[in-house]
Write a structure and sequence with these properties.
The structure is a single chain. The protein has 727 residues and is an alpha+beta fold. Among the domains are: 113-410, Peptidase S8/S53 domain (Rossmann fold); 498-678, no CATH class. The protein is built from 15 helices and 39 strands. Helix 6 runs parallel beside helix 8 and helix 9 (335-352) crosses helix 10 (358-368). It is elongated.
Length: 727
């Protein structure tokens, strides 16, 4: 005998609707009131969304996604209608199945299950109910009008001004089980296969039929029962042109010490291949917050028992459609209404991951199920990676894999990878790289608007903004740089020394430099910065008199922080060579001075995992300083300067990357990168040094940097005041 899984009602108390104005004007959807779908904050469902992963997906739970979900569940009256409390052991427990299964996060990015079909096998349906309006609905058998099936359908895919189900955009197959008629059950399975339903929901079971050989033979040991089983297997496991769907069965609401024959069918010999297409669903009330489930307030249904390896839990307490009229609703709780949540979740995932089969979506639900709560005791571990890898998830005979968590199923699961040419795959973390400061934001600007294809361990396809892999080198805070440069000086020597335009020739490079003066106007500077950062500069002063010309050459190796790239575990830095020129004049102790210096050079760029080809880049820098001595006080020194530090003036690089295509899929292609920043850094400075006594010196300096770090629009300012005494 068939039966519904509908228990006695637990006491439920309605919660007052929260203010609709809380976030109504905060989102990109615009404003609105009441049942206007724009009255709650949503986030873009287009590729390139917040975080490194775009489209419907995020690499993590970003704040704007969290805010949008909160807006849905607080401002959307169809969500808040499910708010309620159970009183368990004298303690009130908040409940909302849309919230606890994280449906709000899916709806907040526009997922509705559109384009998907859910098959419902039940006792009857009011097909004209407002929650089912506008859907493509086909039927098998001769469904009568009944409450149970009507409410199950509304939980899976309902959509009206009063109530929303899990996948409101999905279409339906409504099948009558035909008074325990195997022919009608066979027709239901055939229809689910023909219409390619992502899931077939069954919120019913057999009375007094625990899983076992006796129950199996009683049900399927005749020609009509065998025909139904054959049709069900064809739907579940697939036939020519059909990869197979997912069969969802509610487990019993009362514990008889065993799973039922239908929810645990894959545990029987000869039927174990059904496990890859089967889900059992129980009813439990979670204690949860916006992060995770912390405890189980009550297990309302039977435990999972033998169906534990393919079992999930969900809160089966709903306000859903009833068959009394086209606008009537009822409050019920039971595994009957937990199961269609899982069927609806499969439709949402099918919309989000069109590249995955229903069987692969099933794995995502199991792998993402929340089993972190107190009281979960592991009965076994299941490897959910159907390939060569391993992705273990614990399950319990009591709670199965844990609570349905649609949000987690939308996030990357397990190891992520990018497919490059010739079947080579890389971890996206290894594909990330930084660019040298001389390139500024050139690389991220070149990669803007390009999305790369990334897959997680369960085959989920994600689109990643290519520019997210490139990080522009963050220049040292200007105040820190200025302070280090100022306090390292000998104030008296710096104030009295003649102008030297090629001093600090390695100022733009990381590391420490040492300047050496030689005979007849020769100078040398040595850069020491580590195994991959070093350099040597030589210069010669030509001519004598008030106007001096200095010419020089410079060679250096950079680790990628100034010129080139730095990737995970490797450096694609640069070997640099340049010529330096300077024109200067210094009239002495009480006179003025100026210095105009510049550098032009080339850099041979190395490669990283992401940068597969990098050519020769050209760069230059220029600086002008002018000032005088004894300007405001005897022996002081006032100087103003303007400079453009080293920046790339021309250069190209290339990424071989799996570019995401607009129609889905990806193509490995060469992505060209222009290494020239759109704007160059410009520094304006003023410094003043004055002796306070024979043993003390004061130095002040102010610097303003526009397009700081060669990043358009970035700016920084710093001032420093220093005083030194000698004893």
């Amino acid at each position: 005998m068939l039966r519904h899984f509908l228990p006695n009602l637990l006491r439920r108390r309605a919660i007052l609707l929260m203010s609709l104005s809380t976030l109504a004007l905060a989102g990109c959807g615009g404003g609105g009131e009441g049942d206007d779908p724009d009255a709650w904050f949503t986030i873009s469902a287009n590729p390139g969304g917040s975080g490194i992963f775009g489209s419907y997906f995020m690499a993590s739970i970003t704040q704007n996604w969290r805010d949008a979900a909160a807006s849905f569940r607080q401002n959307n009256p169809r969500f808040t209608r499910q708010d309620g409390t159970f009183t368990i052991g004298g303690t009130p427990v908040f409940a909302n199945p849309l919230h606890s299964s994280r449906v709000d996060y899916a709806h907040a990015v526009g997922l509705t299950g559109a384009g998907q079909v859910i098959a419902i096998v039940d006792d009857g349906f009011r097909r004209t109910h407002e929650t089912l309006a506008g859907k493509t609905i086909t039927t098998t058998g001769n469904p009568v009008v009944e409450d149970h099936g009507t409410m199950v359908a509304s939980v899976a895919a309902g959509n009206s001004a009063s109530m929303v189900g899990v996948a409101p955009g999905a279409d339906l197959i409504l099948s009558d089980w035909g008074n325990v008629t195997f022919d009608n059950l066979r027709l239901a399975a055939d229809a689910a296969r023909t219409r390619r339903a992502v899931a077939q929901n069954n919120s019913w079971g057999y009375v007094n039929s625990p899983v076992g050989t006796a129950s199996f033979n009683s049900i399927f040991g005749n020609s009509t029962g065998a025909a139904w089983l054959g049709a069900l297997r064809n739907y579940a496991l697939g036939t020519t042109g059909w990869s197979g769907g997912v069969v969802v069965f509610a487990i019993a609401n009362s514990d008889t010490g065993s799973a039922g024959i239908m929810d645990a069918l894959p545990s029987l010999a000869g039927q174990t291949d059904l496990q890859r297409a089967w889900l059992a669903v129980g009813n439990a009330i979670p204690v949860f917050n916006d992060t995770d489930v912390t405890a189980v307030a009550a297990l309302v249904s039977s435990p999972c028992h033998q169906s534990g390896p393919w079992c999930l839990m969900a809160d089966g307490a709903w306000v859903g459609a009833s068959a009394v009229s086209n606008t009537s609703y009822q409050s019920q709780t039971g595994s009957s209404f937990a199961a269609p949540q899982v069927a609806g979740a499969l439709a949402l995932l099918a919309e989000a991951f069109p590249n995955l089969t229903p069987h692969q979506l099933r794995l995502r639900l199991l792998a993402s199920a929340d089993n972190s709560f107190a009281g979960f005791t592991t009965s076994g571990t299941l490897d959910l990676d159907d390939g060569p890898g391993v992705l273990n998830h614990n399950w319990s005979a009591l709670y199965g894999h844990g609570f349905l968590d649609i949000r987690a199923a939308l996030l990357p699961i397990g190891q992520q990878s990018m497919a490059l040419a010739d079947g080579v795959t890389v971890d996206p973390k290894d594909y990330a790289f930084t660019t040298g400061g001389a390139m500024g934001d050139a690389v991220t600007q070149s990669l803007a608007g390009i999305d790369l294809a990334v897959a997680d361990q369960l085959g989920g396809a994600f689109q990643v903004a290519a520019k997210e892999f490139a990080t522009a080198a963050v220049p040292t805070d200007l105040a820190e740089t200025l302070a280090a440069r100022t306090f390292a000086k000998d104030y008296r020597e710096a104030r009295m020394a003649p102008i030297n335009p090629l001093a600090e020739t390695f100022a733009d490079h990381p590391g420490q430099s040492l300047d050496l003066a030689g005979p007849e106007g020769t100078r040398a500077s040595v850069l020491v910065g580590g195994a991959e950062t070093y350099g040597l500069a030589l210069s010669q002063r030509l001519g004598e008199g008030a106007l001096a010309l200095d010419v020089g050459v410079k060679v250096a190796r950079d680790n990628g922080s100034l010129m080139g790239f730095a990737g995970s575990g490797s450096s694609g830095g640069a070997s640099m060579a340049s010529v330096t020129l300077a024109l200067s004049s210094d009239t002495g102790e009480a006179g003025g001075f100026f210095a105009l210096s510049g550098e032009m050079g080339v850099a041979e760029l190395g490669t990283t995992t992401a940068i597969t080809r990098a050519g020769t880049a050209r760069f230059d820098s220029i600086r002008l300083d002018l000032g005088g001595r004894s300007v405001l006080a005897r022996g002081d020194r006032l100087s103003v300067g303007v400079a453009m530090p080293i920046a790339v003036t021309s250069g190209q690089a290339e990424m071989q990357a799996p570019v995401a295509l607009a129609g889905g899929g990806s193509e490995v292609r060469a992505v060209g990168i222009d290494l020239t920043p759109s704007e160059r850094q410009l520094d304006l400075s003023i410094s003043y040094a004055v002796p306070m006594s024979d043993t003390s010196e004061v130095r002040m300096e102010l610097v303003r940097a526009e397009n700081y770090g060669n990043v358009a629009g970035a700016s920084d300012s710093a001032a420093v005041f220093g005083m030194k005494w000698s004893f």
